[in-house]
Amino acid sequence: MSSKILSAACVGLDANLVEVEADTGGGQLGSFAVVGLPDLAVQESRERVRSAIKNSGFDFPKLKVTVNLAPADLKKIGPIYDLPIAVSILKAANKIALSDQAATQSLFLGELALNGDLRPVNGVLPIALVADRWNVKTVYLPADNAPEANLNKKIEVIPVKNLKDLIAHMEKDAEIPAFTAPDIEFTNQETDYDMAQINGQEQVKRAMEIAAAGAHNMLMVGPPGSGKTMLAKAMPSILPDLILEEALELTKIYSVAGKLSGNSALINSRPFRSPHHTTSGVALVGGGTWPKPGEISLAHRGVLFLDEFAEFSRATLENLRQPLEDGIIQVSRAAGSLTFPAKFILVAAMNPCPCGYLNDREKNCLCGSGQILSYKKKISGPILDRIDLHIDVPKVKFEKLIASVHLEDSASIKRRVEAARKKQLERFKSENCLTNSEMSSEMVKKYCRIDEQSANLLRTAVNQLQLSARAYFRVLKLARTIADLESSDRITGQHLAEALQYRPKIE
């Protein structure tokens, strides 16, 4: 007797339908084989499934059992197939009442414990979001995964605690109610830092506001103790709330990476990732036997803060070239090649030299010229060219530290940032981008037109600052964001002049 039910495989941030077929009879009695390119975790499911069925009060078939996971050329990874394998075997052995029609409209996911309990699995959201395209009406999965699957309102989500309850549900003995959840509210990530707590550094705060408004990258250079880290940690407090499209993208990444909190269906705040400077290139871009998202993808639609920027290895920093330019990272390994989104705001901070006091008027620099050159060479020209705002962070004077003046708080800055982002969403409603920093060169020509006087200013700057073609387009994108912050429909010479001052100075 044979049976067939449906499951799914998560490939990157996409999902593929998997048919789980079970056949009993023939061959050596009591043997159990799983075929269809399973990895070690799937192979080990044989023992978990056998024990789970027995401990749920059912007899495991004494005939030979063969389970096929189709398509056979797709690598099957992880314990997500435990539940579908168990259900398929029980259906083949006539232990459960599941019609062929119901089987083709139901999807099963989940890892089984030896006692039959269901444990949560990774990658549920990408599968749930496309399940209705496969004509799936109902998804059976671990109760802990139900909130993220419920984000697709077109399917019925049945939260299952154990195999015994699932069988009772199918036999109509004890129905499991479908999962329902309240609507999600989007908020900013909670942070202990507010712009009102930071005395001085008004120019840096202005640069951060521009970076937040247009999702531009920025580099802060200054001596130790000037407030670079504190400023970076305050960045999430001025970022606009997520929109649904961004939240779904982000939640899919965290679901695949296995970092989704069990008590949250949807990530509702922008991420702030701050890897240590000893982080490897693989940890930054993603990797593993079957590639999983790295830090740059986990920072998608949020902030990637690289403190001590020049202390990262040059090879690690060079991995940032593709994501900073294209907003994606393509990870190729022996097991396959996957593409993950990586549209983040890079906030980098570094000292001007190894000791940190180069050009300081009060403290002498102890570094030799060779040390300074070697320190700066760690960051290549192509990486610097991809950073929109280069800002010096000077030491804060004592008078400013003790001054009892009212400083603008993050909430006020956030309102201006949100207004600018709203203009961008309206501008790009027919385009495949959300912020000014994502504009292609063709879109820059369309949305960043300047008058003749501004063109002359830009021509002079390109020649004097020796700007590359990439830098030319990035200056225009930055000027567009500055204009949006002022609610201006056109880019003026003043907007362009401010954008140009954030380019690195020629040394």
Helix and strand arrangement:
Blueprint: E1 2-11, E2 14-24, E3 32-35, H1 40-43, H2 45-55, E4 65-70, H3 82-92, H4 100-104, E5 106-108, E6 111-112, E7 118-119, H5 124-130, E8 138-142, H6 146-149, E9 156-160, H7 163-170, H8 202-214, E10 218-221, H9 228-234, H10 244-257, E11 272-273, H11 281-285, E12 286-287, E13 292-293, H12 295-298, E14 303-306, H13 314-318, H14 321-326, E15 328-333, E16 336-341, E17 345-350, H15 369-377, H16 381-385, E18 389-392, H17 398-402, H18 410-427, H19 441-447, H20 452-464, H21 469-485, H22 493-500
Parallel strand pairs: 3-4, 5-8, 8-9, 10-17, 10-18, 11-14, 14-17
Antiparallel strand pairs: 1-2, 2-4, 6-7, 12-13, 15-16
Helix pairs in contact: 2-3, 8-18, 8-21, 20-22, 21-22
Mind telling me the C-alpha Rg? 28 Å
Mean pLDDT comes to 90
Reported for the largest beta sheet, the result is: 5 strands, parallel
What is the name of the CATH class of the largest domain?
A: Alpha Beta
Report the sheet-strand fraction: 15-25%
Please give the count of helices: 22
**Poorly predicted ranges (pLDDT <50, ≥5 residues)?**
none
Distance between the termini: 78 Å
Q: What is the CATH architecture term of the largest domain? A: 3-Layer(aba) Sandwich
Write down the CATH topology of the largest domain.
Rossmann fold
The percent range for helix content is: 25-40%
Broad structural category: alpha/beta
Structure description:
This protein is of the alpha/beta class. It has 22 helices and 18 strands. The chain has a five-stranded parallel β-sheet. A hairpin with a 4-residue loop joins strand 12 and strand 13 (292-293). Helix 8 (202-214) runs parallel beside helix 18 (410-427). The longest helix has 18 residues, at 410-427. The N and C termini lie far apart (78 Å).
